[in-house]
């Protein structure tokens, strides 16, 4: 196998429940992380995230790529207008984004943190 290419075809990630470090500020949201890849130094993570309805206070320290597979949420950066996201949307969140993340309908997304 290559030192430069990781094929994830055979991965069977172990579900990690309620591992988010974000502060819950509304409802009773619960999360499942299925981390399919973590770099050797732990700085890059890729996988699937599932979250039930509720609201979090967020503070992004890393860049995140997201592809929503299911659900609907509203992300509101401090001092800015809310961004409504739904199944099929692909987006990036830059480091330094602070605000709220509200899951309105259970979300399932692919993510990459780097």
TrEMBL record:
Name the record gives this protein: Cupin domain-containing protein
A Pfam family it matches: Cupin_3
InterPro entries named in the record: RmlC-like_jellyroll (IPR014710), RmlC_Cupin_sf (IPR011051), UGlyAH_Cupin_dom (IPR008579)
Gene3D superfamilies (UniProt xref): Jelly Rolls
(S)-ureidoglycine aminohydrolase cupin domain span: 39-111
Source organism per UniProt: Metapseudomonas boanensis
PANTHER family referenced in this protein's UniProt entry, alphabetically: CYTOPLASMIC PROTEIN, CYTOPLASMIC PROTEIN-RELATED
């Amino acid at each position: 196998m290559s030192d430069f290419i990781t094929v994830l075809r055979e991965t069977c990630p172990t579900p990690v429940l309620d591992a988010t470090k974000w502060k819950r500020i509304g409802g009773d949201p619960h999360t499942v992380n299925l981390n399919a890849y973590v770099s050797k130094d732990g700085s890059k993570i890729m996988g699937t995230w599932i979250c039930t309805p509720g609201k979090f206070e967020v503070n992004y320290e890393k860049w995140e790529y997201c592809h929503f597979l299911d659900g609907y949420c509203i992300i509101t950066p401090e001092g800015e207008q809310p961004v409504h996201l739904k199944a099929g949307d692909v987006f990036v969140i830059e480091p330094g984004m602070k605000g709220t993340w509200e899951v309105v309908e259970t979300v399932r997304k692919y993510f990459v943190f780097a």
